[in-house]
Amino acid sequence: APMDYSTSLLRLTFLALGAALVLIVARSAFRLPLAIDAPAASFLHGAGGCTRFSPWACRSPRTEKSTPRRPSHESDVPRHPLDPLTVTEVSRARDLLRAHPPFASAPSALAVHALALDEPDKPAVRRWRKGAHALPPRRAVAVVRFQGESHVLALDLTAGKVAPLPVPASGYPTMTMDEQTALCAAPFSDPAFNATIRRRGVRLDDVACLPISLGWYGPEEDGGRRLIKSQCYSTEGTANFYMRPIEGLTVLVDMDTGKVVHISDRGAGIPIPAAKNTDYRGAANDDDDGTDRFGYQTVRAPSMEPAPEGPGFQIEDGHTVRWAGWEFHLKADARAGLIVSRATVQDPATGARREVIYKGMASELFVPYMDPTEAWYFKTYMDAGEYGFGLQAMPLVPLNDCPRHARYMDGVFVAADGRPYVRENMICVFERYAGDIAWRHSESPITGMDVRESRPKVTLVARMAASVANYDYIVDWEFQTDGLIRIKVRRPQNVGILMVKGTPYSHMNQVRRNEEMHGTLLSENVIGVIHDHYVTFRLDMDVDGADNSFVRVDMARQDTAPGESPRRSYLKATRHVASTEKDARVRLKLYEPAEFHVINPTKKTRVGNPVGYKVVPAGTAGSLLDPEDPPQKRGAFTNNQVKRLPTTRVKSGPVGCSCTRAKGRTRWVRGRTGTVRSRTRTWCCGTRWGSTTSLVRRTSPSCPLCRPASTSSRSTSSRATPSSSSGPPWRRTSPSVPLLPETMHQDTCVLEDNPRAHWAVARG
Ligand SMILES: [Cu+2]
């Protein structure tokens, strides 16, 4: 039960204050500044510095005092070509936008939906060396709305130039947080809405509404307007208001005007589920003295003290992470959440630094619900493109979300009014040790050798957690000492907070035989609706250089010839280098297994195989929807579990895609002044980032992983090095991989996996 609409602000508010007084609480929590147009420079200080668009991003004086180590964002400067826009740069971009002719006439009417670094071209980034080269010119791409129109603009922050870029043909930009928050209040401005709430015997103060993206279902639903649907819940008696839907009540709102367009009210006979036993807060089970009502032992994370010399990793210049031979650039992104770039690893045999991934990130999350009825059919969320995966990532909770020795990284994002704000502690980096063994071997007495080798499994994790309405996604990028990178997407709890449907039924004995419920009766008056979660990753692999090929290794039965062998059959691997995009569109089949390798055909291992990485989809699923079903057309990137895209498509700018309400096909453009090429057709969102997509099952414990396709003899020998030699032995393994030859230019791998609907169980 995931979903995503929503305003994290509301959730925070509910968590902090319990239910109640949504509007009033929300309004006061905004800490409205005296003047919206106060100088941006003061944005970090005091209540007056908070913009009304970033209520949770404001730093309270208390927070500042408790984190004196934190570098000042106001004086931060970019130090790497891929560093995200700084506070100063965002402010600069804002000034440029507001002075740009179309917007200068009414700058306060300008809404910034996205503003991000326009990354320099890959060759320039790969060439760049700290200290030896100046930073490439800093550029940005902005997606804005102004007087009912979308605009995409290229900003040259150094030269102070603004140039318009082509605007996607369909769809709208990611909603701003400000919009998502304001939309929660929109229904209350409509007397008919208030009347129907009262008719149900619900207090308006107890009602919380969430903006739910619409998808795209044809022009008759579109009308050229930026629309959204709002559905509401009763917060009475529980923080888990998601369990108390006011079913069948759907409010269509025009996002540009904030006005209610239409109200569909078909659920009058459906009771609001009871609040009893729905509260997930720990304190809800406590007695007055703070102990658990039933005497359950409270389990706390064991403390894991860093070594006296400090944690085993360093973060240099704010974004460059180094650990156990690994080095990568890490940053927060409003849309993708976190982005790992320029991941390289040191070869234990030669000491040389070897490239692995140029850029990797979540490109889209697609969550279609499987209920075609009026109040549910449109629930086909794109959590990244519509809501902003990074925008929804809340500050991590030290010691509970990340262990004691973790270090934290902030996100600098842009509010709708163009001002920068800081999302503190959005990413954490830490060494993980969970008691597992990375490698071991003991000799048996048979050989007479006294060998007992064992290395603890210590990994490095970069983590974020996005709270998209009721749903919390934890994304871990985990780096191993043997060269493996594992991307995990999890929800933290087996029993999460569900997006449920109200029903008149309180027991299965009331349900007619063969009645289609589109889900499971979880509790009295509550149905958990079947749905999918697809998380798509784009992995732009640069294994030992940018010249990589995508190889599919098909495994099939080979029959022996009569008399050839006592065996009648064996498994034979056949390698195909993808030469077209179609070649690298993978649909996984259990009895037609395959492996997926990204190789560098120009670089060979000692025995002559090309080096490469294997991309391993873990926990996969394929969409069962009709390919012509509107949600599936939008989410067509889920048609394949692994997909390679041509290099040319990898050039997509960071913010050029308009996902909200986009039709199946949309367009994106490269966002760079002077290099704007013709528009390229591609699927929105999933492949927007170009190259690869991996669909990950959100509910599986671990998802896709990239790892060496196999172990080279060199790495094996290094593993066998006695631990008494210099340095931690478990850090000496090789990422090199033997693979097959071939040529072809491509960029990435991918994987995917996704989930069939999960049937959740409600508490109570
Ligand atoms: Cu779910």
From TrEMBL:
Region annotation (Disordered) maps to 57-83, 700-739
Source species taxonomy: Eukaryota, Viridiplantae, Streptophyta, Embryophyta, Tracheophyta
Q: Which cofactor does it need?
A: Cu cation
Query: 2',4',5'-topaquinone occurs at which residues?
Result: 471
Cofactor mode of binding and number, as noted = Contains 1 topaquinone per subunit.
Q: Where is the composition biased (Basic and acidic residues)?
A: 61-82
* Family of the protein in this entry: Belongs to the copper/topaquinone oxidase family.
Q: Which GO terms describe its molecular function?
A: copper ion binding; primary methylamine oxidase activity; quinone binding
- Its domain of life reads Eukaryota
What is the protein's name according to its record? Answer: Amine oxidase
Start and end of every Copper amine oxidase N2-terminal domain? 80-163
